[in-house]
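From the methods appendix. Each design record in this collection lists the tokenized structure first, followed by the designed amino acid sequence. Records were kept in a plain field format so they could be parsed without special tools. The example shown here is representative of the layout used throughout.

RECORD:
FOLD TOKENS (432 positions):
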């Protein structure tokens, strides 16, 4: 018995909870460290890079859930670890004020736990979807769960932003406590009994061929290798602004913690709309090719970043919110079209290597996410020492990011065919 549409939506609630917790650690806590605590941006940059770096262990978590017989305990356990990590990371904000070394040590442990939780829970959830969903529903199931995650990110950022002002550590802990406890409860209820009702196929014995041997064979395929480089370049551009947008809004435009959190929610709302646009136009109306949508998303993102950088000269009162929504919209257009192209390319080349190709591209995305966020934060720190005003420092980083998006658009012309998509599906999850 395969998953019903209701069961797919229930599992999507888990992905929504995962995104809701992570957005606090990558946006709200990041802003509090840089603005309220006046810490160098490279510190939250390092912490977020740590959480992404640890997620390179996702294949290991998938293997454990494969061989363990049950995926649900790994899903619930992963979300529980993620929730505890978020609580500890929030606690570290107040510890930083009095004991810097203790605050940093607690943050490192917390973000490592966040990475492990996201890797274990997220990977096991996607594995359950892949094995228990009817093949004709898999693309739609993946799309539903990813859109629900983006919705969770946007809704959480917007809602928390409304309750976080006036800011205090006690209020932060109260909000994070309610959110993490609620997310864990929803996860338990959403997954309860689903796996038992599914007649899952027997899992084959472990392939004796070493993983590295298979990856070497894929790397020898020119199109797979070039697409891997495209994923790394474009995702580096995608994530460079992740850790500096909220500090930029606070330092240059005078946004409060609640306002910057709401700004992040608006950005992810734009991402959601961009994904919906491509899903409707490319999949249903058959308008445009994957190559066209990827290039449009890259160039639109670059233009929005140039606008965001230029608004820094105006400062408080400038229309930053519409520019950020526009950036999110074109980010969503790019991301979902690139993922559809990835699904298309996964079936090319040597057969029975689709999973390994997706794993290779997923690893490239994870490395790029950590590298891009850390590079953006470090560049902002260095440039703030070189420039007299923060607007010029942050603006320069945004312009570099725009340049990378233009380069990604040029590369997309070479590595992505102009064929129309047959499905829009989620494999890479930005912000996870």
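DESIGN:
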């Amino acid at each position: 018995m395969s998953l019903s549409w209701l069961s797919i939506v229930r599992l999507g609630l888990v992905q929504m909870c995962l995104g809701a917790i992570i957005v606090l650690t990558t946006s709200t806590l990041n802003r509090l460290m840089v603005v309220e605590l006046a810490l160098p941006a490279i510190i939250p940059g390092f912490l977020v890079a740590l959480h992404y770096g640890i997620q390179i262990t996702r294949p290991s978590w998938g293997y454990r859930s494969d061989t363990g017989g049950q995926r649900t305990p790994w899903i619930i356990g992963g979300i529980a670890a993620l929730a505890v990590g978020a609580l500890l990371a929030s606690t570290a904000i107040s510890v930083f004020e009095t004991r810097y070394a203790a605050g940093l040590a607690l943050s490192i442990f917390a973000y490592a736990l966040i990475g492990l939780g996201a890797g274990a829970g997220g990977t096991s959830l996607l594995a359950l979807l892949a094995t228990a969903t009817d093949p004709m529903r898999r693309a739609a199931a993946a799309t539903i769960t990813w859109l629900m995650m983006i919705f969770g990110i946007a809704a959480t950022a917007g809602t928390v932003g409304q309750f976080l002002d006036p800011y205090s550590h006690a209020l932060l802990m109260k909000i994070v406590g309610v959110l993490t406890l609620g997310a864990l409860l929803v996860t338990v209820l959403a997954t309860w009994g689903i796996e038992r009702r599914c007649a899952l196929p027997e899992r084959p014995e472990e392939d004796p061929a070493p993983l590295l041997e298979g990856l070497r064979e894929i790397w020898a395929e020119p199109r797979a290798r070039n697409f891997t480089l495209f994923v790394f370049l474009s995702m580096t551009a995608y994530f460079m602004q992740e850790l500096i947008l909220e500090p930029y809004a606070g330092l240059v435009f005078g946004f409060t913690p609640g306002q910057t959190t709401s700004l992040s929610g608006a950005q992810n709302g734009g991402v959601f709309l961009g994904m919906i646009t491509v899903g409707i136009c490319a999949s249903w109306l058959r308008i445009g090719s994957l190559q066209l949508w990827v290039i449009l998303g890259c160039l639109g993102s670059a233009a929005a970043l140039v606008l965001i950088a230029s608004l820094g000269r105006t400062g408080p009162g400038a229309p930053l919110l519409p520019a950020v929504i526009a950036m999110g919209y074109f980010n969503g257009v790019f991301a979902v079209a690139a993922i559809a192209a990835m699904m298309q390319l996964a079936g090319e080349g040597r057969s029975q290597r689709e999973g390994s190709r997706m794993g290779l591209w997923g690893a490239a995305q994870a490395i790029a996410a950590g590298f891009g966020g850390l590079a953006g934060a470090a560049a902002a720190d260095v440039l703030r020492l070189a420039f007299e005003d923060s607007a010029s420092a942050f603006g320069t980083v945004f312009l570099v990011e725009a340049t990378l998006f233009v380069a990604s658009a040029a590369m997309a012309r070479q590595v992505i065919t102009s064929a129309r998509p047959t499905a829009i599906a989620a494999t890479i999850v930005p912000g996870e």
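APPENDIX NOTE: The longest helix spans residues 100-132.
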